[in-house]
Amino acid sequence: MTTEAPLTVNEPAPGGFFAWMDRQSQNLRLTRFMLLRFTGLVWFAAWLSAAQQFIPLVGHDGLLPADLLVKQALERYESPWALLWEMPSVFWFDCSDTMILAVTWTGVILSLVVLCGYANAIIMFVLWSLYMSLLPIGQEWLSYGWDIQILETGFLGMMLCPLLDPRPFPKQAPPVLIIWLYRWLIFRIMLGAGLIKWRGDSCWRDLTALYYHYETQPVPNPLSPLLHSMPKWFHKAGVAWNHFIELIVPWFGFVGRWPRHIAGLLMSSFMVILIFSGNLSFLNWLTIIPCLACFDDSFWKRVLPKALVRRADKAAEGSQCTPMSHWVTSMVYAGIVAWLSWGPVKNLVSSEQAMNTSFDRLRLVNTYGAFGSIDRERFELVFQGTDSAIADLMADWKDYEFKAKPTDPMRRPVIISPYHYRLDWAAWYPWHRIPGRNQWVPNFIWKLLHNDPGALSLIARNPFPDAPPKYIRVLVYRYRFAPRDHPDGVWWVREREGTHIYPISKDSPQLQQIVRDAGWMREQPK
Question: Which is the most buried residue in 137, 177, 331, 500, by most CB within 10 A?
């Protein structure tokens, strides 16, 4: 009885098509390494922010308690299994704070494992499935484009890995079909973002969007005031460059090697510029990942350390061809993506284009976009409290300082990306124009009136450390970047525009009725 030697990279796999595919795959080992390491970084940022914030956000005593949502959902469905089919989540079976902590910190640990260089399909599947579980209970805290984009990207990462081998450079080459799906992802991301801007707001068409964007974006960073002060020609050139990157460059991700490499460089460098000019959570870091799929190993060998390149070359020596099972799995998945792409493609070409929308319950193929409209002015909700007995003109009102969004004009804009402060982002949302948002505000006020430790952990400074305030109010201020030569050295100048919520105490029948009807009236410290 004879034993056949395994096929190596120098011996073509049976069949011309698979032999060609396998040769393509052998030149993508460093590309896979970079894709997975960057995916691990973004998973880590996403999971760490969830682990540190989800208990005060959606825990039993959180701002929008998830256990109440689960209870209401179970009343409408026959069992958790029926809900699992509609919206996959482990939390239909157990939505305790212990379960939330277990899921989120498991995500933190596994993402660190991937970041350190160890990933297989099982690890990547667990990361994807657990984050999928967060979406139904995340409510408005997890309602953003990057929360579905990370799921699509994470699933591609799972398909890129061997089933069991977790080594940074496994013997098995990555399937080239999955790399092509990464390129299809970045094409949809960029083109969707470009089209929604062009269709959505005239300031993108007349090249004036950046007159306002640096000042009115969700969380400006320390460079934003400088960029905002640049001359108008600079802003118009920036918008023109944005259109070129998002509407023209993505098409070159499907052509020859050098045009594809140049397209990858332009798109990834554009994301780096956005990282330095704003704090868009982990969105731009996440978008860099499919940009990296535009490169093959001929590029990475020029820019990565020689020791890393030698490790990849050593793994390729005598390596086996990609198993037929992996090819079949990749082809089946590519077929599913092609089928599911009908909705996103139809949306892209529609004059009624939707932004950041899923068309399947597993969020495998989505449509994306960002900043389809630009605010011309920045309005902020400023939460204030007083311990005065009467909330009149003589009361001493003190501001609650958030961790990232502007409040104190003297405080320099912060750097948080790729971390994500979800309360700050929700508080920025155009509350005056989007119905259904900021459902958390009444409970947040209720908790501030009781100095609730969980709610206070979500903000930077509590002006009432010894005893809770007697009244809370919410004002509306218009914020503008201060001139660089402002005599007071402030970063912002602000003007009061009005009152969003008039002074209210914990004895207010209206507030008590709201929190009681919503089920938020848990036992509070006196």
Answer: 137
